[in-house]
Amino acid sequence: MLALTATASGPVRADVVEHLDLRDAAVIVAGFDRPNLHLAARFCTDDDERRRAVTEWVAERAGPGLLYVATRKDTERYAAGLTSRGLAAGAFHAGMKAADRRRVQDGFMRGELDVVAATSAFGMGIDKPDVRFVAHAATPGSLDAYYQEIGRAGRDGEPAEVMLFHRPEDQGLQRFLVTRKLDRECVGEVAAAVRRRRLGIAITELARQLDRSRRKVW
Questions:
Q1: What's the rounded Cα separation, in Å, for the pair 72 and 77?
Q2: C-alpha distance from residue 50 to each of 39, 113, 150, 201 (Å)
Q3: Can you tell me the distance from the alpha carbon of 56 to that of 49, in angstroms, rounded to the nearest whole number?
Q4: Once rounded to an integer, what is the mean pLDDT over residues 16-23?
Q5: Residues 37/154, Cβ–Cβ less than 8 Å
Q6: Arithmetic mean of pLDDT, 11-24
Q7: Helicase C-terminal domain location, by residue (predicted)?
Q8: 92 and 101 Cβ atoms separated by less than 8 Å
Q9: 3-state secondary structure at position 92
């Protein structure tokens, strides 16, 4: 048996071996040095400064490129800002309809978009060789996530830029996203409602029936 993963820390590698019940497994870890990637970081004092700095930096780059952001709203904000600067920009996040996500992803792969402003939802199956930059408008949730996302740059071996725009407050957001508690009561209500509707139910209708916000039931 051969088990492969793009990026995995020591504990994750141990989990792979344990869950697959591998015996005497030969664990091979390749190096992550990518000489063609130029990594840099820029400290920003507040969000307004960062938004301006990110938009200007991306607008000055020759694409195609990826801009990873922390929230779904930020994907729309940055895409709109970059479009106003004359770039062909798209937004991508998990809350979009599947058809819209597919349209943005296919457009990027075909070279129709200069840049995609996306959450971490954008990435699986993305193997575009000529990505010339990957920028982060906020600190990612983990070093593994950061390495995996910047690894989409320069897969053709040509030079590519990687830039992180960060603030200390970014860590607080990531801690909130990781540690927020699951509303078990809401999960039970959603599960029961979905079971009753064998043919499925729209998120908006589900939220109305349960008298909860659309975000809560999503």
A1: 9
A2: 18, 23, 19, 40
A3: 11
A4: 87
A5: yes
A6: 86
A7: 50-198
A8: yes
A9: strand
pTM: predicted TM-score of the whole model, two decimal places? 0.73
**Tokens, residue 136:** 């982060």
What mean pLDDT is predicted for residues 118-136? 89
| Tokens, residue 84 | 């106003």
67: exposed, middle or buried (C-beta count within 10 Å: 0-12, 13-18, 19+)? Answer: buried
d(CA 108, CA 126): 10
Spatial contact of 169 and 47, defined as CB atoms under 8 Å apart? no
Altogether, the residues listed in the chain come to a count of 218
Give tens-digit pLDDT for 138-187: 988 888 888 889 999 999 999 999 999 998 877 665 555 555 566 777 77
Q: Cα–Cα distance between 35 and 159 in angstroms, integer?
A: 8
Please, how many CA atoms are within 13 Å of residue 135, restricted to the half-sphere of its CB? 24
Beta strand 133-136 pairing with 65-68: parallel
Please name the amino acid found at residue 92. F
Tokens 């990026």 belong to which residue? 7
Q: What class is the 34-173 domain?
A: alpha beta
In the chain, where are the structural domains located?
A: 1-30, 34-173, 182-217
At residue 118 the predicted structure's pLDDT band, cuts being 50, 70 and 90, is: very high
Tell me the C-alpha distance between 101 and 90, whole Å: 10
